[in-house]
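Data card: per-record layout.
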Amino acid sequence: MKTIQRVAEAPSGIGMDVIGVPPGSPVALDLRLESVVEGVLVTGTAVVSLQGQCARCLEPIASPEEVDLQELYLYPDKEPDDDEASRVEGELLDLEPLLRDTVVLDLPYTPLCRPDCAGLCPDCGADLNDDPEHRHDDRVDPRWAGLTGWTADPDDDEAVSAENKE
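The structure for this 166-residue chain is written out next.
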């Protein structure tokens, strides 16, 4: 068994459009490598820096994230028909696919700056976190917009009622 603690640069492509790990940012690895019959078992943790935007208010988000890693890297002569398996390449282990898959699966589907984020006003885009009492006048249905200038005239009501009596 061998333990490794190392800081490496994050590769590109870890994340989604809204949140992810910036390329070149530090990735702190704390790994344990164990020799087993089939190959090398890698277990440990990785700490990455997430950066992105809140899905509701579009404010920047930055937070550290720790993910658990575990993968069996097969020796080249073990299970030759398994094309999907991770393999030992000489004396090297490619941790990039393991890190990418683990971090992406651990990302929040809807990243938020805080759990109670109110988001943006759908009409004007104002941040509702800054102004929770933000309001607009009642919107008029566009189908009725032509009638907004009409007002009730009390004289008209009397004329209509007189016509109805005749």
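Known properties of this structure: The first strand starts at residue 2 and ends at 9. The mean pLDDT is 86.

See the next section for split statistics.
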